[in-house]
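sorry for the late reply, my laptop died twice this morning and i had to redo everyting from scratch. anyway the thing you sent over, i finally got around to it. pasting the sequence first so we're on the same page, its 449 residues, then the predicted structure underneath. double check i copied it right bc i was rushing
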Amino acid sequence: MSKSIIVVEDELSIRIGIQHTLTAEGYTVEAFEDADSALRFMQPGGFDLLITDMRLPGMSGLELLSKVEELHPETGTMLITAFPEIDLAVKAMRHGAFDFLCKPFSNEGLLIAVERYFNYRDLKQENARLKSGEDLEGMIGGQAMQPAFDRIRAVADACTPVLILGPSGTGKELVASALHNLSHRADKPFIKINCSALPEHLLESELFGHEKGAFTGAHRRRIGKFEVANGGTFFFDEIGDMPLSLQAKLLRVLEDGEITRVGENKPIKVAVRTIFATAKDLDAALEEGTFREDLYYRINVVPINLPPLKERGDDIVKLMQHFLHLYAGRHNKQEVSISSDAQKALLAYDYPGNIRELRNIIERSVLLAQDGVVRVGHLPQRVRGEEQPVSVCKAKDNFTLEEGVQQYERERIVGALEKTGNRKQLAADMLGISRKVLWKKMKDLGISG
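ok and here's the structure:
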């Protein structure tokens, strides 16, 4: 896409010369005699770069610079000045101008200055993109995640094993996926296995494969995941739960680069990049003797630590908004927003289940929010900070189901009214229903208003 430039210069010959020079280099250029005309042209949308003379009829170049900085902060600015005005131009640069051109200037000098600005802008945008994690599988993260993001980019294309550490639900599989997709193996297989999901005898067959007749039920040859992953990446989730006997076999594969199918003696060469993840404390597992020390040092070459969600500050709000948008679209709803009280409750919660728990809470809330607004009442009781109510229904086994439901609703509504000082709208928000529904239920249940 062509870069767009606006030129504001009252001297016709200079204005035409600048426009011709920049257009010949492939820039899209609009030129104006005065600042007001340029501003009117820019109103529908900003331009990439503004080049303006300091002295103009009507509004000055400095005033134009201030206006553009206010209305179009994404637009870069560059000033043209006569030699005696250099001090003024330097002052303008301190207020946001990128550079200045001193009359008379050559076409080459103009092009060099413009190219220097766009190189600066592109580098700035790239830094912002890297800090935001846009290149990391859409991972969302601020300052607390920067060490992890930096480590991912640094080792993505290496052959070295990576160990991802962090509590359950912090996004370890996303990190593994980013490591694969940022590498030269991105077009090769990305194979995953959960070491805690299969019993030992099945896990060995899954990893290495087996020959026909290798054990009871082995009616045909099976290719293991190591062979399937050949040339690509193999992600071992919950490596801390792998049985000790298999740890020894895995270590041999990592050391020798070859596997042997169950029931076969002939080794098979494999070239696989391995990534490991665990929520367990492997140092404690070493002391307990449940994890091999030699394997630990083999896989812990490059560790990546993921912090729990409660330590990630503003990331909670970003993730909240991301999941709201995601699940509103997935469940065919119009854009869903979140009330300030619900947001406060979500920010005050500790999230023992981390991002996975937040994601599930938001999906549930989106489904329950019939009017497009997630309210406190749509959140789980643990998030609202409420204890599970002890209903009188537990003490009376002779209640019908309908009577029990009515009694429960009566308790919840009365409790909400008491907590909000009988303010109906606040009580409705707390219960996750509209004011109209609250009034109807109060009438049906005989609750005085």
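The radius of gyration is 32 Å.
thats about all i looked at so far, will dig more tmrw
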